[in-house]
Amino acid sequence: MADQSLTTDEREHGAQFAPKFDAHGLLTAVVVDGQTGDVLVVAHMNREALDATLATGKVHFWSRSRQALWMKGETSGNVLTVEEVLVDCDQDALVIRARPAGPTCHTGARSCFYRRVEMADSGAALVKVKT
Predict the structure, then answer these.
(1) Largest CA distance in the chain
(2) What structural domains and CATH numbers belong to the chain?
(3) DSSP-derived secondary structure letter, 58
């Protein structure tokens, strides 16, 4: 859990890393390609996933569906190697700049964000984009 003794000013402007997990013990992690800046994946981390990421330099997440820790690429080999971890102002979300070892999405796409929403007469439609 986050350090509750920090004031808002200390949390927002201080040098202490004190991640603020939500009621489920999670925070949002947005992983971007360290070279291109493209968004690769958005997932969640609990304390164990965050600690494993910082200790190993490989991005780990908490799977809400499996209720288990997992390292991105542990079965495919397409790991995400951490280059930099950024935390937002109130320390409840991360941006991780990483070097992908291959496709990031389980579909085989380079990024999980491979479709754009476009409005048509019939409503919203998904259109594939180059990733």
Answers:
(1) 53
(2) 8-128 (3.10.20.810)
(3) B
